[in-house]
Design brief:
It is a single chain. Strands 1-10-9-4-3-2 form a 6-stranded antiparallel sheet. It has a 4-stranded antiparallel sheet with strand order 5-6-7-8. It is α+β, with helices and mostly antiparallel strands and about 190 residues long. A hairpin with a 3-residue loop joins strand 9 and strand 10. The longest helix has about 35 residues.
Amino acid sequence: MGARSITIGSRRTFLAHALTLAALGLGRRVRAQASRLLRYRPLSQPVVMPLDAVSVPWRVRPFTAEAITLPSAATPNQPIRVSGMIVRTAAGERPEQFSAVCVRCPHELCDVDYVDDPKRLPQEVLAEIGRPVNDPVYLCPCHNSSFKVDGDRLSGPAPRGLYRFRVTGVSAAAVEIAEVEEDVLIFV
């Protein structure tokens, strides 16, 4: 009887621990998703790019956005200008067919270059990426951090990907960029 109660107790303890761990994992996932939804802040005024200017896939167009720094920034609640680039990544007229990023590398705030032909990337950058690159990339000329067109980090010392803008609307005449990743309002 004593051995049976230990087994039942052990099973219950194991099940309780497993459920607790599952709940914690689910809680992290929910918090991560929620923070992803909350990571953008409105610009002071939307940037409106004529659709004709971004009609050709992979042709980048620069823009400047105006925003207000966050209360937690070193200089809180101040107007700032954030330089960005937008590129069409697919045919169609939906926001997800465009990518807009801040041109400042998050490593040391150097302005990145757009490399439309990956064959022109330096050999050491290609070696650091470690796999074939077929699409255009952003490359930081200061320390060779490289980024996908959507801003995701490919390689280099940058601690994260490029800060992103959110394309919030596309009409027959224009593309609207109305939000920016909130971290840019602290660090850039």
